[in-house]
Every structure is written in C-alpha cells, then in structure tokens.
Design goal:
mainly alpha, 13 helices, 2 strands, disordered C terminus
Length: about 450
C-alpha cells in the first residue's frame, strides 16, 4: 500500500469516527428535551399537565420538520461557486445537497434547535392558546434560531468574520440559551402573568407546581443530556484532534452547575430560613447555561468561578422578574436563568478562556483570548456585541409573532378556561383536577 493510499484510508477512518461520534451523542440531546418536558410538567399545576406535554411534543417534532425543510439551509447552506452570504445560508433546503458526512451534523443541530425552542416556549405556560405556541415554534425554528446560528457559526456569517475568529461561544450560551431567554422575555411582556399570580399591588402569590419529583428527575435528565449537547459541539472529534479537550468539557460541565446550585441553595437558606428544593434545582440549570459558552476553553478553577457568579446572576435576574413593576410570570424560571446566565456565559467566555485551550479548540494560536490572561478586550467586545445582537433579534421577531394574536384577542385562553383547566378546552383529553375548598377534595372531569 502506497503512502497516498494509506493517507486516504486513514482520512476515511477519521471521518467515520467523527460521524459515529455525532450519531452517538445526538440522541442524548433528544433525552435533554425529555428532561425539559418533565421539568415543565412538574412546574405547572396538574390541571394543565397534559396540555404542556402536548405542546412540548409538538415542539420536538417541529424541530425535525423545520430544520429538514429550511432551518439547516438557513444556518449552514452555501452554494458551490457562489459568493458567500454573510446574513443567511442559501442552500441545502429540504435535505438536498447535504453530504452524507454532513447529515449527522444536521441531526445534532436540529436536536440543539429543539432544545432552545422548548426552553423559550416553556416560559409562558398555562395561559396561551396551542395555535400560538405552534406559530411561535415554527418561526423560532425556521427563522429566529437558524439565522443567528449562521451569523455565529457559519464561516460566512458576519459575526464570525469579525476579529480573528468572531465571538467565542463553544456550545450555545448565546445562540441557544440567551436567544431562548430573550424570546421568552418578549413573550412574557406581551402575554402577561397568569391570573392570580400577582395582587393588584404587585405582590407575588404562590402557585406551586404539580410534582417536585418530576422537576427533580427532569433536572437531572437535562443535566445528563447537557453533557451530550456540549460534547456534540466538538463536531470533528478525530479529524481536528478535538478529542483532546472533550475531557475538559466534561469536567467543566460537572463543576459549574454543582457549585452554582449549592450557592443558590445556601442563599435561599439564608433568605428564607429553610431549604428550597426548586431553587436548588434551578441553580443546576443556571450553572449549565453559564458554562456552555466556555466549556472547552476554560480551566476547572474558572468553571468554579463561572458557576458561582452564575448563581448571583440567576438570583438577581429572578428578583428583577418578580419586581412589582416588572411582573414576569414564568413557572419554570427559564427567563431569568437563560437571559442572565446566558449573557454571563458570553461574558465569562471572553474573560477566562486561556490561550492554550483556545489554540486546541480553534486549531491555531489566536490573536484574541481571555482578558484575564492578557488577551486584551477585543474578544470581550465581540462577545458583548453578539449578546446584544442576539437579544435584539430574538425579542424583535418574538414580538412580531405575538402582537397580531394579542390585537385579535386570540393570544390567551378565556379567563374561565384558565381558571378551571386548559385540557378538554384545548385538547381532546380528560383531566383530573383536585380542588380543595375548605373540605374534602372534589374530582371533576373536563372533556370536549
């Protein structure tokens, strides 16, 4: 066998291993979506649980349909021989012209898009018509998300072309989580809080979720899937020697949420004089969002700091959301988690990314690296610019989706439906509702 034949066979083996890597981690990203569904179902009241399950299942399936039709083309499509497009991809629609070697990447990115979509649409649970969710999910997966991915990840994207290699966002602190948080914030502002969530004076009233068990299981399933989400960002595991930092990704994805959740737990113990399970679990998610952008480029000691500051960012964000003048009502607390910790994730990436890890990740010694390593402020400026652009883009298009429904009075369900049950009015299914009314519980069934 000649040296040339040997090199061709070795290159083919490397490509096969890369394909196998993506195909092995992508189904576990779907597992992450299952965790989101469990988490949200346990966070809402039992009378709306089936409605939430249906809405989220539709979102999962829509991610496959939209990314196959045009989402992947808008994000990464490029016609051979034509000038690159800095704004949007222009090829690979309806699965055409997607090489077999790129199809695992399509599979992974469609799963990641579904995660971002479910996180965004979970923020206004228990009060919005199902058709509004469907339109929102369709636009999010077809336009809002793919265009930002093109700007950030495609070689032709206008953000990617800035500086040495554009903003640094390894696994989606910005283009997945911050994007979802901004969309959820815009939707919450337009939709408004659930009935009875705030008093006339803006005082917050408790609305306990149905199942702490489901929230706990959902959180740990999300954490398990998050490892695969971060692993899959190393697309060329063997071809570009990216296996060298996957172990670092694993360690950082474990350290940051661990310290973040403990910081949140003991803060609320100090404030409320009792342990709060729900806040503890939300601290895990806050840490996962915070480390997503920097999982491959920071050292474990920096992951510890990122997690601790992520806890402060989440707590501050939640207090702002619940302020009497703002009155954001999110049963999952994803608005504060994704918006504040996603923004912090973009900033921390530009502060703590070391030159050696950047060289491994980017395959060359970059001119820009973390500011705390003496890399200057260009990377920080690029990540700040990307974060602001992502927030503005997401909020603008989400507002454009929601306002027509609000003006036509088709955004929220009727008051009597919201007060009683969404199931049976929005879905053809039974719902078991237990209502305590100063006596033994009464059981009702609602059905179309």
């Amino acid at each position: 066998m000649s040296d040339q034949e040997y090199e061709l066979k070795f290159a083919s083996l490397q490509e096969s291993m890369d394909i196998g890597w993506l195909l092995s981690v992508s189904p576990l990203v779907l597992f992450l979506m299952m965790g989101i569904i469990l988490y949200e179902s346990g966070s809402v009241r039992i009378k709306n649980m089936k409605y939430v399950l249906l809405k989220n299942t539709v979102g999962c399936l829509m991610s496959a349909v939209c990314f196959w039709a045009w989402g992947y083309g808008f994000a990464f499509g490029r016609k051979d021989g034509e000038p690159s497009n800095a704004f949007i991809g222009n090829d690979a629609f309806f699965g055409t012209d997607v090489l077999n070697s790129d199809k695992p990447h399509y599979f992974y990115t469609s799963m990641a898009a579904g995660v971002s979509c479910l996180l965004a649409t979970s923020t206004v649970a228990e009060r919005v018509h199902l058709h509004v969710y469907c339109v929102w999910q369709f636009l999010y997966l077809s336009w809002i998300h793919p265009v930002v991915v093109h700007w950030m990840l495609a070689p032709e994207g206008w953000l990617r072309r800035m500086g040495v290699s554009g903003p640094l966002d390894y696994a989606g602190a910005g283009y997945l989580h911050l994007l979802a948080g901004a969309s959820g914030l815009a939707a919450n502002i337009i939709v408004g809080p659930r009935l009875g969530r705030y008093s006339r004076k803006g005082r917050l009233k408790k609305m306990e979720g149905y199942s702490a068990t489901m929230v706990t299981l959902g959180t740990f399933i999300m954490w398990t899937g998050w490892f695969s989400l971060n692993f899959g960002a190393a697309r060329n595991l063997v071809t570009l020697d990216q296996y060298k930092y996957v172990g670092l990704v694993a360690v950082n994805t474990f350290i940051a949420p661990s310290f973040c959740s403990l910081a949140v737990l003991y803060y609320y113990l100090w404030e409320k004089k009792m342990y709060d399970l729900n806040e503890f679990l939300r601290g895990i998610i806050a840490g996962l969002v915070s480390i997503s952008g920097a999982a491959a480029t920071v050292e474990p000691w920096a992951a510890f700091i990122i997690g601790m500051v992520g806890a402060l960012a989440y707590i501050l964000g939640q207090k702002l959301c619940e302020h009497p003048l703002i009155r954001i009502d999110d049963p999952t607390n994803f608005v504060s988690i994704l918006l504040m910790c996603g923004f912090w994730g973009m900033i921390s990436t530009s502060l703590f990314s070391s030159q050696s890890n950047m060289a491994k990740y980017l395959r060359f010694t970059p001119g820009d690296y973390g500011a705390f390593y003496g890399g200057g402020g260009q990377l920080l400026g690029l990540n700040l610019l990307a974060a602001v652009v992502i927030i503005a883009w997401s909020m603008f298009w989400t507002t454009l989706v929601m306002l027509p429904f609000r003006f036509t009075n088709t955004l929220r369900v009727a008051k009597e439906v919201e007060q009683k049950v969404l199931e049976g009015k929005e879905t053809a299914s039974f719902a078991r509702v237990e209502i305590m009314n100063n006596g033994p519980p009464e059981t009702f069934q609602f059905r179309i």
